[in-house]
């Protein structure tokens, strides 16, 4: 099933199929990502986060729900791959300014 996502969020999920540079380009210069208990701030750290995740696991992410909640865009996505517990539904909480993501928190 395909859903309509805000442009910067859609760009993130499209880029996530590619390389870490493409993912980093979706974020503002001082953006923050929180994932698996770690915080990554700035484009360099975000690029490294994505490189490390891609080297550790192969996965696909298929968004299937999206809501605007208190100014944040909450996307639920089925993530399938070669990691323990796959497949799993993850919640991606985005804050966006203009055409860039300023924060992203990924939770179960």
From TrEMBL:
Cross-referenced Pfam families: SnoaL_2 (PF12680)
Protein name per UniProt: Polyketide cyclase
Domain SnoaL-like, first and last residues per copy: 15-103
Source organism: Desulfovibrio psychrotolerans
InterPro entries xref list: NTF2-like_dom_sf (IPR032710), SnoaL-like (IPR037401)
Highest taxon in the source lineage: Bacteria
